[in-house]
Amino acid sequence: MTYSLLIGGFVALFLMVFQPFGISGWQSDQKWIYLVGFGLITFIVLLFSQIGLTRLLPTFYNEDSWTVGKEIVHSLIVMGFITVGNFLFAFKIGIYPWSFLAFLFSFIFVVAIGVFPIFFNVLLKYKASNKRFDKGLLVSTIKKELLSEISLISENQNEELVLSSDKLQYIESADNYSNVHFTEGGQTKSQLLRGSLSYFEKQIKSSHIRRCHRSYIVNFDKAREITGNAQGYRVHLEGIEKQIPVSRKFSHILEDLK
After folding, report:
1. Phi and psi at residue 124, in whole multiples of 5°?
2. Are the beta carbons of 206 and 196 closer than 8 angstroms?
3. In this structure, what are the phi and psi dihedrals at residue 243, rounded to the nearest 5 degrees?
4. Could you read off the pLDDT of 53-67 as tens digits, one per residue?
């Protein structure tokens, strides 16, 4: 609400001080009330976008999946709503005629004033996201877990893979199967077991062997390095060239392991 109030106030103050787009030529005793009205419309639309849109589109506005692109799309949607509100208000008070050209002018009006606060808002969110996801995590900060035995039983109950937790590297989704990668005799091996990743995830009791992506379960005790940025982390495992992605949805587990 504070952000919406600040931007709404900025719009009203900007219009009053600079009076752009021919506003200085308006001949009306209620000019200042009208200008406050445009700021109020901005406030209402922004408040709706913060409360209403996030509830109507929870997946799109999921903080863990935030990107600069999504923020730009969101800003365009908000500017569209503000344009409609400003146009209807201007038509009601007799400033704009009911025409597409007047609506287009209203949109240009909104973009010209809103581009600066939107730019700074995107920049601040990007920096906040980087601060959240780029914490310079070191593998040394992750405490090793005591060894345990892992038993993975296939969905059809026909196969069972039993191995020590320090042997498992990662499990990769493969349609109706899961490909288990592990070390044996100093060599990396893999075994295909029937069952989804979610199915095998329930069989693993280790707090360090975690789902980190819709397609991967990884043993973080085998990590030699963790790199990443605001778009997500990647786990580099011992003796494995493949980098395992950590989607932003699961990035919190890196903090849990500390």
Report:
1. -65, -40
2. no
3. -100, 130
4. 878 887 777 665 667
| Maximum C-alpha span of the chain | 88
What tokens appear for 139 in the block? Answer: 């593998």
Residues in the chain: 258
158-172 pLDDT tens trace? 999 999 989 999 999
Supply 166's token pair: 């320090």
Query: pLDDT averaged over the chain?
Result: 84
Region of 21 (left: φ > 0; alpha: ψ -120 to 50; beta: rest) is left
Rounded Cα–Cα distance for residues 28 and 223 (Å): 70
Q: Where are the domains of the chain?
A: 2-133, 139-256
pTM (predicted TM-score): 0.52
Strands in the chain per DSSP E: 149-153, 160-164, 168-174, 177-184, 187-194, 209-213, 216-219, 223-229, 232-237, 243-246
User: What confidence tens digit (pLDDT) does each residue in 93-121 have?
Assistant: 888 899 999 999 889 988 888 877 777 77
**Mean pLDDT, rounded, for 118-138:** 61
Residue type, 97: P
Yes or no: domain 139-256 corresponds to CATH 2.40.50.1020: yes
What is the residue type of 205?
K
Give pLDDT, residue 128.
Answer: 61
Q: Are 72 and 81 in contact (CB under 8 A)?
A: no
Of the candidates 106, 107, 85, the residue with the CA atom closest to the CA atom of residue 96: 106
- H or E segment and range at residue 37: helix 31-48
Please work out, in degrees rounded to the nearest 5, the angle formed at the alpha carbon of residue 57 by the alpha carbons of 197 and 43. 145
- Rounded CA-CA distance 142/175 in Å is 31
Q: In the structure encoding, which two tokens stand for residue 133, read together? A: 């996801």
Do the beta carbons of residue 161 and residue 174 sit within 8 Å?
A: no
